[in-house]
Amino acid sequence: xxxxxxxxxxxxxxxxxxxxxxxxxxxxxxxxxxxxxxxxxxxxxxxxxxxxxxxxxxxxxxxxxxxxxxxxxxxxxxxxxxxxxxxxxxxxxxxxxxxxxxxxxxxxxxxxxxxxxxxxxxxxxxxxxxxxxxxxxxxxxxxxxxxxxxxxxxxxxxxxxxxxxxxxxxxxxxxxxxxxxxxxxxxx
Length: 188
Prior knowledge:
By secondary structure, the protein is mainly α. It has helices at residues 9-38, 43-75, 83-123, 136-145, 147-183.
């Protein structure tokens, strides 16, 4: 249902708040929290914390991306879109899809494999050391000696890499949409 005219001030505020919420959460989770935490706790604690926080993060992104797309689509009928509005609509959609992929598939799959790796690491007395860089030689030796662990590590790397790519794409889309929105503000 296309809505004619300018959105109400409340809708504008909601749209800006939802975009800002998404962007702020993406900055915090992607560029601050993980890097700070990984240096302060053991690998297994880090994995456990991430396994609890990431589903919430991904679903919050999915919800906020859905709200942003819905609000934008209602006030920008497809037949009336100019080039910039079309790009912005696509960016909202890509942000929604990448958040959905992370929430429904990549996040849970990476977490499942991480817990399988954790079991093998625990059997070899690994994972309780602070920081990811500790005991590199022991982890390399484990990968060489245990084909199951090597396969888990490879699978985890794939899921984690795809998840990071989706997260980065979503962040770029949200950032670009926030910039478009800021450039169209009449005043600050």
